[in-house]
Amino acid sequence: MPAPRTLAQQLASRQREISVAEFFERNRQILGFDNPQRAVLTAVKEAVDNSLDACEEAKVLPEIRVEIAREGVDRVRVAVDDNGPGILRREIPNVFGRLLYGSRFHANRQARGQQGIGISAAVLFAGLTTGRPARVTSKVAEEEAAHVLEIALDTQKNLPHVVSEDLELWDRPHGTRIELLLKAKYVRGRQSPFEYLKNTAIVNPHARLILLEPDGTKATYERVSSEVPAIPHEVAPHPYGLELGELASVLKASGRPTLSEALTRDLAGVSPRSAREVLEQSHLPARRPPSSLNGEEVERLLAALHGASLLPPSTEALSPIGGLLIKRGLRNVLGEVRPEFFAPPVSRPPRIRGGFPFLVEVGLVYGGNLPPDQPVQLLRFANRVPLLFQQGACAITNAVQGLDWRRYGLEQRGGSGVPIGPCVILVHVASTKVPFTSEAKEAIAEDPEIDRELTLALQASARHLRTHLSRKARRNFASEKFAIILKILPKLAEKTSRLVGEPVPDLTAVITKIMDVVHVETAVAPASASGRCAAIQVTNYTPRARLLELFVEMPLELLAKARFSPEPAGVDPDLGRAWWTLARLAPSERTPVRVSFPEGQDVEWADLDWYVAGVDEGHLLGAEALPGDWEVRLPRAVIEAAAEDAGSDEAEGEVDYDAAEAGAKVGDDE
Amino acid sequence: MPAPRTLAQQLASRQREISVAEFFERNRQILGFDNPQRAVLTAVKEAVDNSLDACEEAKVLPEIRVEIAREGVDRVRVAVDDNGPGILRREIPNVFGRLLYGSRFHANRQARGQQGIGISAAVLFAGLTTGRPARVTSKVAEEEAAHVLEIALDTQKNLPHVVSEDLELWDRPHGTRIELLLKAKYVRGRQSPFEYLKNTAIVNPHARLILLEPDGTKATYERVSSEVPAIPHEVAPHPYGLELGELASVLKASGRPTLSEALTRDLAGVSPRSAREVLEQSHLPARRPPSSLNGEEVERLLAALHGASLLPPSTEALSPIGGLLIKRGLRNVLGEVRPEFFAPPVSRPPRIRGGFPFLVEVGLVYGGNLPPDQPVQLLRFANRVPLLFQQGACAITNAVQGLDWRRYGLEQRGGSGVPIGPCVILVHVASTKVPFTSEAKEAIAEDPEIDRELTLALQASARHLRTHLSRKARRNFASEKFAIILKILPKLAEKTSRLVGEPVPDLTAVITKIMDVVHVETAVAPASASGRCAAIQVTNYTPRARLLELFVEMPLELLAKARFSPEPAGVDPDLGRAWWTLARLAPSERTPVRVSFPEGQDVEWADLDWYVAGVDEGHLLGAEALPGDWEVRLPRAVIEAAAEDAGSDEAEGEVDYDAAEAGAKVGDDE
Predict the structure, then answer these.
(1) Given the DSSP bridges, would you call strands A218-221 and B16-17 parallel, antiparallel or unpaired?
(2) Are the beta carbons of A27 and B58 separated by less than 8 Å?
(3) How far apart are CA B488 and CA B481, in angstroms?
(4) Under an 8 A CB cutoff, do B58 and A7 touch?
(5) How many CB atoms lie within 10 A of CB A251?
(6) pLDDT tens digit string along B422-465?
(7) Residue B226: CB partners within 8 Å, gap ≥ 6?
């Protein structure tokens, strides 16, 4: 071997600093620019995510337009513009022409962009493949002209280079537009901008999104909600899961005069009382300046914090989609497949992971025109952004594959892996810091805490599915039975009447008696100046008198504005429920209930779910039986006592079907 | 909404630069530090990869020792030391305490570490979780003491901080040692340092690796090759797949006086002749200084280069493992499962992707004690480093799943997905720039070029498997037949002899006749001072005279040193083959062949494969029939003419088995 001294010196002479832009230029696949098709999607995605973030911060209902045009054989022009607040002239170069530069990295709140890499990476890729600078237009207020800058990224220095600059009139009152020329390929498909915008619309129902494709096709996703989501607040890091070095940084940067103040103000979840306990346990005086702690003391403090019982994480930093909008978003986009079942969306309470709060939401849709023999469609989202790539590397996929879906009514080979069935599962992970597997932000890294929450949320959704499927099986049986009765009885009556030479009698009462159901019917009046109104009719088509309880469940924001007639017996504003004890209903009797909302209220009647107690689910049509874990308001005994048979003998109305010519055998399954 | 001007200003005031170390501290999952278990593996992996790279550069046979010890409840101490060239004192802080700093990023040749991130990331993680600096020991030559430095990483500045410094005596003549204290968890399992070192040993058979686990267990992987792989040369980027921006950078940095010189010297594969053609086609004068080209001219030049027919990529920058070592590495590590079949390893020629050469190698092992009802075991490697995480996100996995393995004899549901069977598939991707999906370097990104090569290599391996499986089926049938004959004949003879009152005759000749095979037998002499020697015996146990050709195939480096007796009829040093035309063999005749190697030659007899032409594979034991695509050296007619029946009637020796008492029916399947 050569003398090692020489070798070590040779090696040393080659040591060099690597610019972060050089690094990503060489490793552009890490940023999502692996291939010509993905490059278009990544560029669109980074621009649209920034637009949505900016609009949300400005409390503007987003109106975003994406234009994609082919140029030559292998180039694509991408332009994205928005009605956001715009970007000040002096910040434009750095925002678009410098990696690791941004406003959201140091803020501990949920945002789509967090890294300060995305859009500059697209500019880097454009420069690398076509040599063309990005063209950025930005306007910050109605009276001004827009700034138009051409920006390139200097890879060796990771700094922006302004190629040209101009002022221009722009009809947007304010907003930002970016235009890029990329070496890329536009294909419509499973991982295309088309799909990305469709999925973005599901979880951002307040946005209006327009896509112009190279062939001139225009796709518009209209908003189905006109409320801008509340801006998540920045919160201090929570001590649970915080690492030593992070706590040390918090204390160093604190600036508070005393340790006890730093604990309660610079950390989340620490009350003055727990601060006292923690300090006592770590043998640290409350009045010490926080920056004076040495390594060993910070270690003691962290151990005490991890052992203390602190307040749970606040949801303020998070912006969940919410059950109502998940359902509406899915309905809006999946309209054409007419699913038979939208499971009540599941939102888990926020948890802490490495000091950062996160929460999981799951929506599930079943049936209709969804393909029954294909793997279920999994829609993955992180901070309201669709994840279209690297499904196999994602914690969401792993959680879905890890569940035994056979127990919930879907096919699954061997009880693990992606289940088979006419089903769409939407999973949203929201966090102030989503742990992505790479800068391309396409997959969530494995994490025991996140996995646990994902599994719990998926199980809850799956249970809804199981309930639906077993109800459907029962209901199918019941309606088949009724169909047969309605077909046979008139024939029987006609034949018998002919035989005995009498006129055919009116069968309504008999049929009613045999149908044996309580029917809940909703009639919706069209929206009027005085508001929107629905009339509910509960009819007792059973041969016994019934004392029934009627429940309605709806999103909390709707319940707050709902007017009822008659007045409900009770309202639970936290659970979003109201209920009535209906007057005792004799057979064939009915009772009305009215629900109305003030003018302008955005309401979808399908968002109101109706439940009935006092009759089992086999004898209920148009509403669901009260879920097992809901509290019945009337004592069971009272309900039972109120019910009495209409006739002296319930069997009176029975017909000997075996004797009927139809030959169909129908048993009484009560 | 609030005045947008104010908002844009508010947003602007929050814009900040993000240090690359801050970024990775927050996104440590990207570097492979997601959870306590993976943290240990990642730290070990980064240190060992660096050690292997350094030893290779110094042409030292690596001797690497990994010590892992538990400390307290949730901490693990990791120490890795090597016998590499060591690191100069002045470079130690930057190498271990600064992200994006290194010697291999700008070199266009294959190396394990390329990013200048790995080991500094481990130091960052140690500081973050335990507050302890890394302890680095380095010695660059025998006569000096070792430098011992404690190094921490300043996250906000991404700069090293030397906490303490000392000199120490160290018994290693030269080398590097790093010791880290991490918040982590040591578990032995599928994704553990134990597994990582085992797999590292497979693809680095020249390394000696020692692992000391927390419970005191010591695992040693001895080297099975004593040759340090050749150091890959740096090569210039190849124009195929090069992007505009990259070509512009090459020209700008060139320093050559003329464009034509820059094309032939700063790019790979461009001959003076193709340079002339390219310049002509792009209407550029050959004498222009390369840095004087404007964007539009570079574009023209690139288009001409992409259209030109250039020389193929050189393999000099790559360090494939090679067929011999893949087989040996697998045998060394899989020894205990005693696989029945090692497919001849497949090495694809190098290709170009984005200007960088890459190649794919595949090894396949079948049977023995491998579990027959489990998914095949996939061993993924990139630049001789095992990939243990993110299997689902890796191009290698996708290529394996995309192949229909049912056509090659493995089970696979629906013809896609991971196949089922007693099989290990090793895939190695070597490149001067492996496109990893993230900085954790655990999965290779999807790429059409790489996917194509992976598929071709896997198909070639799979064809070997199919051949083996069908041969095995035939051989099983043949040996069952022989077993029956050897059992029945003596009984028949004994009974018949007793009946006719004669002594039992000698059956050898008859059995030989019935066996009807050519047998190739290898006897190996123990290594002696004069070298190593094997005697091959070819026996004609068929009832006909045979003119046979004998072929041997072996690794090229062995063939170069082999001595044969008798002299072979021919040697093909490129294909690694030698062959003999054997003297005409009468029934029961045999002929010997000797192979010997000089003293000290590292040879494994199982690396020599024997083939025979002149008899079909149904009548061959101990060697394989000549593969269909090999050239037979003698004309078929000569072989046929030489063969004649031993007796006047071949049926003479036949026995009417139906008459025998054993009742087993054995037909002649010739």
Answers:
(1) unpaired
(2) no
(3) 11
(4) yes
(5) 23
(6) 999 999 999 998 999 989 899 999 888 999 999 999 999 998 89
(7) B61, B206, B602
Name the residue among B303, B368, B39, B56 with its Cα closest to residue B183: B39
B132 DSSP 8-state letter: P
Q: Which of these, A136, A176, A170, lies nearest to A49 by C-alpha position?
A: A176
d(CA B431, CA B235): 12
CB-nearest to A413 from B7, B127, B413 is B413
Strand partners, B16: A102
Residue A87 neighbours by CB under 8 Å, 6+ apart = A95, A136, A138, A140, A176, B8, B11, B12
Q: Contact at 8 Å (CB) between B370 and B424?
A: yes
What's the mean per-residue pLDDT of chain B? 85
pLDDT for B535-583, tens place per residue? Answer: 888 888 788 888 899 999 887 778 888 999 999 988 988 888 899 988 8
Give just the sign of the alpha carbon dihedral A432, A434, A439, A440. Answer: negative
Distance between B443 CA and the closest CA of chain A, angstroms: 9
Distance from B4 to chain A by nearest Cα, in Å? 5
A4 vs B contacts (CB less than 8 Å): 58, 85-86, 140-141, 173-174
**Pairwise CA distance, residues B37 & A399, whole Å:** 19
**Short-list B177, B176, B214, CA closest to B192:** B214
Question: Cα separation of A382 and A427, whole Å?
Answer: 8
Chain A residues whose CB is inside 8 A of the B23 CB are 100, 105, 115
Nearest to A437 among B23, B30, B60 (CB): B30
Q: What is the pLDDT of residue A17?
A: 82
Rounded to 5 degrees, φ, ψ at B555 are: -55, 145
The pLDDT score that the predictor gives to residue B166 is: 95
Across the interface, whether the CB atoms of A393 and B437 are under 8 A apart is answered yes
A596 has which bridge partners? A533, A563
Question: Higher-confidence residue: A376 or B657?
Answer: A376
A431 forms beta bridges with A358
Ramachandran angles phi, psi of A14, nearest 5°: -95, -5
A27: nearest CA in chain B?
B435
HEC profile for B325-341? HHHHHHHHHHHHHCCCE
Strand order from edge to edge, sheet including B134-139: B159-168, B146-154, B134-139, B175-183, B75-81, B63-71, B208-212, B218-221
The answer to whether the Cβ–Cβ distance between B131 and A439 falls below 8 Å is no
Contacts of residue A22 in chain B, CB cutoff 8 Å? 105
Q: Which residues contact A612 (CB under 8 A, 6 or more apart)?
A: A518, A520, A538, A548, A549, A550, A551, A620, A623, A624, A625, A626
Among chain A residues, CA nearest to B124: A245
Q: Which amino acid is at A375?
A: P
Given phi > 0 = left and psi -120 to 50 = alpha, else beta, which region is A594?
A: beta
Flag if B29 and A248 touch (Cβ within 8 Å).
no
Residue to mutate among B61, B243, B397, with most A CBs inside 10 A, is B243
- Note whether B105 contacts A4, CB cutoff 8 Å: no
Per-block average pLDDT, block size 10, for chain A (670 residues)? 61 80 87 89 95 92 96 94 93 92 79 83 94 95 86 93 94 94 90 92 92 94 86 87 90 92 93 94 93 92 92 83 84 79 89 89 92 91 93 92 92 84 95 91 91 95 88 67 66 78 74 73 73 84 86 85 90 87 84 88 76 82 75 67 51 36 34
Of B8-12, B197-201, B434-438, the range with the lowest mean pLDDT is B8-12
Q: For an interface test with A, which of B6, B10, B19, B29 has the most A Cβ atoms less than 10 Å from its Cβ?
A: B29
Helices (H), A217-361: 244-253, 259-266, 272-281, 295-307, 323-334
Task: Give yes or no for residue B317 having a pLDDT over 70.
Answer: yes
